[in-house]
What does this fold into?
Amino acid sequence: MPIHVLQIDAFTAEPFAGNPAAVCLLPAPATATWMQRVAREMNLSETAFVSPRPAGDGFDLRWFTPKVEVPLCGHATLASAHALWEEGLLPLDEPARFHTASGLLTAERTAGWIELDFPIDPVAPVEPPPALAAVLGIRPVHAARSQNRLLVELDDEKTVRSLQPDFGLIAGMPVQGVIVTARAADAPYDFVSRYFAPRVGIAEDPVTGSAHCSLVPYWAERLGKHELLAYQASERGGTLRLRLAGERVKIGGQAVTVLRGELLA
It folds into this structure.
């Protein structure tokens, strides 16, 4: 039976910006091998696979890069919720409930935006790895580490935007990816970031919701505020409305569908 698939640009209200995700709407769970093959075929930073749970208990959700399954993905979760509402599989006034490898995640529509409820991924200060200057081509101001990512603060927004890191060296580092960030130069944004994860098949991710599970507590402490507006300064770019809520992070974004089709294999 053909599988309904959509391509949705997340963290943007305009087509061909933000972060594109493929969303496969499955009638029942599929095998990991098949999902990995589909993700490789889609060749986007993530492909999401959504299937209904019994007795109306929300949906199962899994995410795959072209190379590996990942435990958490923000933009593809936002895209999945958008798909459920847009395709009439979930009432517009009902929250989306996703059962995932990172626990229960929810998404709600609010004033034209979608707000995700994610767990924080706190970071702790570390000494910059000796190779980091060579990786980035510049010395960091601060370095911190979460469970599987390195967060690096740079001098200013201009430096973040102009950065040309060595992807080969990043792929050899013992982390899933490297977040680079700086205070925003101008209002309305509080900070900017970029995210590099060649180790899992993503040289640069256009907009990374899950990275903000670390960025939000980091900048909330440094700026002394719990509500933040961020911009991920990739070539495509995207805006995120953010709130720190105890051990959770509220990640707000918009989404637009750019493609609908059927997967025949």
